[in-house]
Design goal:
The chain is α+β, with helices and mostly antiparallel strands. Among the domains are: 1-42, no CATH class; 48-87 and 230-258 and 306-398, no CATH class; 481-611, no CATH class. It contains 16 helices and 15 strands. The protein has helices spanning 2-15, 34-38, 59-74, 102-106, 115-128, 231-234, 236-254, 271-285, 314-329, 346-373, 401-413, 419-425, 488-509, 516-537, 544-560, 569-611; strands at residues 77-84, 91-95, 131-138, 144-150, 155-159, 164-166, 176-178, 183-187, 195-196, 202-203, 208-210, 215-219, 261-264, 301-304, 387-391. The strands form six sheets. Strands 2-1-15 form a three-stranded antiparallel sheet. A three-stranded antiparallel sheet has the order 4-3-12. Mean pLDDT is 76; it is low at 12-31, 36-41, 193-202 and 454-485.
């Protein structure tokens, strides 16, 4: 009976061992590590056995894992709902506090741990073992009710060789049928930490199968897309050298910093006397007696053989290994205890830490949570589910007070931040006043679709206090025929270009798409022709500034086109006259300004040459 129990336990032990020693999913932290030594799978070139757990004895390794996992766990984790604004069609995201899974995602993944504990454990599994597993516990309605981290040393993906039906279980209250080739997960990590038999003796947890839709699996560096490679396995020689270096230092000080050597004995001494002399020397000079004065019998000689730590360059080696370990975690060395490095660019290193060390882990977690907890369904798997999860990086990227003040002032001045938005960013209570929700804007700015008024906006008036021209007709209102293009020059251009402009207008009005490209094709030749005429009038030529203005002006026409309502030919003629007069005045002002700038540059250049 004892032999049967031994072989049963040995069988369960072998089940936890990978079939190939090159597979990093082998749990190297098992008590029976002598099995790995038999197959030369546990030791490194430095002669030190390295596993996922023994690697934590390297301080830099521990610091990097704790820093990355702790930083991500400290960030707020929200459920967001994506929607489109009806006016502009722009996407906006809001925190979905009312979602049924919000408390599970943000605060308490399961009844035994907080979200911080869960996330830190999950990230540590990802960083060390190369795979992070979390089982989704569901209720009878197939709704997620809890998330449980699973031991990556006891969990692995498995592809079914044939069609299989899995009956209902306590962790899966409904049967599931999977076809051959389907991917499932098998684990010996039970719903409880231990499983006890009827006799009360602890037994090995039986293997169970988890459906892929119930497993949040984030692999690290994966060569097949399914199983991540263990960082400890890939960097085992570096970690083994670090452990060997620390062991050397510990042994050195365990000997009270006294180097070892060779005790030479007379050649004719008997073997029994040699052993007795060795034993006596160890008792007299070992351990607590290592600093005592030694008295050697006649014929005995002590010869020092070992090097000092300085000769072995252990200090420089430790600095090199620290940088190596930080490199494969993408952590700035100063965050892992490198005090010799310059701190002048610490702020930039902090940004790199977020971009290179945290963001890849967070993106992998976010995408897996989206796939399994908020899946897209429907034809072509269109994203009809508008919920997703994301980390709030506000705290970790929070700048200093001077930088925040500059950002808030700029945002308030240019109209993309109001008072309550600034208070929210500072985590302060809002002001319950209407003015706190309003936006400011500079009084000397305008929209790109607003036409330029040479006598008012550009200061091109006659300097005698003349009044600006009458305002343009508002879209949707009857244009004032008596005030549209009344100056003689504008009338001349209206007569010359009215047919061409109305033909372009009719083309876009009767188009099925009416996109920006059609607007450019229809109005571009007319507007650029006007620009060339205006440039010849002042004996100049257009530049890229004029071209950019015309492109922007056509874009503004495209926006105004959304409000053009034509009921008759007369309405179309009135709209064409109004838009052409508007274009003539705007482009003429832009060309005159462009030519004036060129002439000013030529005069300045000529003055510099004369002065030289």
């Amino acid at each position: 009976m004892k032999h049967m129990k031994f072989f049963a336990a040995f069988k369960e032990l072998i089940r936890e061992i990978r079939s190939s020693l090159e597979n990093p999913q082998t749990p190297l932290s098992m008590p029976a590590e002598w099995l790995l030594d038999i197959f030369n799978g546990g030791r490194t070139d430095a002669g030190i056995r390295v596993s996922e757990l023994t690697a934590f004895q390297v301080v830099t390794f521990l610091t990097c894992v704790d820093l990355i996992s702790g930083s991500i766990a400290a960030l707020p984790f929200h459920i967001y709902e994506r929607s489109l604004l009806p006016e502009s069609g722009r996407a906006v995201n809001r925190v979905a506090y009312e979602h049924l899974l919000y408390n599970m995602i943000h605060g308490e993944p399961n009844e035994e741990m907080s979200r911080h504990t869960f996330t830190k454990t999950y990230c540590a599994h990802y960083l060390v073992w190369g795979n992070a597993y979390a089982e989704i516990q569901r209720d009878g309605d197939n709704s997620a009710m809890a998330l449980w981290p699973r031991n990556p040393a006891k969990t692995r993906p498995y592809r079914l060789l044939q069609k299989q039906t899995f009956q209902a279980e306590p962790w899966r209250p409904f049967p599931v049928t999977k076809p051959a080739g389907a991917l499932v997960y098998r684990t010996t990590d039970g719903l409880d930490d231990v499983d006890r038999s009827d006799t009360g003796a602890q037994s090995v947890q039986p293997e169970r199968t988890i459906m892929p839709e119930d497993m949040l699996h984030v692999p690290g560096l994966a060569l097949d897309g399914r199983i991540g490679q263990s960082v400890v396995y890939l960097a085992r020689n570096t970690l083994g050298l670090a452990l060997a270096t620390e062991k050397f230092g510990s042994k050195y000080f365990a000997n009270y910093a006294r180097p070892g050597g060779i005790l030479e004995m007379p050649a004719n001494i008997a073997p029994e006397a040699r052993e007795q002399a060795k034993k006596s020397w160890m008792e007299a000079q070992g351990g607590e007696n290592s600093n005592r004065v030694a008295v050697l019998p006649p014929g005995f000689k002590w010869q020092q053989t070992s090097n000092s730590p300085e000769d072995a360059q252990s200090k420089d080696l430790q600095a090199f290994l620290r940088n190596q370990i930080c490199a494969f975690f993408h952590v700035p060395p100063h965050m892992a205890g490198d005090v010799d490095r310059s701190r002048s660019n610490t702020e930039q290193m902090a940004q790199e830490f977020v971009s290179l060390a945290l963001t890849p882990v967070m993106q992998a977690i976010k995408q897996e949570f989206k796939r399994k907890l908020f899946p897209n369904t429907g034809v072509g798997r269109k994203p009809i589910n508008n919920f997703h999860v994301d980390f709030d990086l506000h705290y970790i990227l929070r700048p200093d007070a001077a930088s925040r003040e500059k950002y808030y002032a700029t945002g308030r001045q240019w109209g993309f931040l109001n008072t309550n938005m600034i208070l929210e960013l500072e985590r302060l209570n809002p002001i319950n006043e209407d003015w706190a929700e309003k936006f400011w804007m500079p009084v000397n700015m305008t929209l790109t679709e607003t036409p330029i008024d040479p006598s008012h906006q550009d200061g091109a008036g006659n300097g005698q206090g003349q009044e600006p021209p009458e305002a343009e007709p508002i879209e949707g209102k009857e244009p004032d025929k008596g005030k549209t293009g009344t100056d003689p020059e504008t009338k001349a251009y209206l007569l010359a270009y009215s047919r061409l402009f109305r033909a372009s207008l009719s083309r876009v009005l009767h188009s099925e798409t009416g996109n920006l490209t059609e607007f450019k094709q229809a109005f571009g030749p007319v507007l650029w022709s006007l620009a060339d005429l205006f440039a010849r009038e002042v004996k100049g030529q257009t530049t890229q500034e004029t071209d950019r203005f015309i492109v922007d002006y056509i874009g503004a026409m495209k926006k105004r086109g959304q409000h053009w309502h034509i009921a008759s030919i007369a309405d179309e003629d009135e709209l064409g006259t109004s838009e052409l007069a508007r274009a003539v005045r705007s482009i003429r002002a832009a060309v005159y300004r462009d030519v004036a700038d060129q002439q000013a540059l030529e005069v300045s250049s000529q003055e510099k040459e004369n002065a030289g």
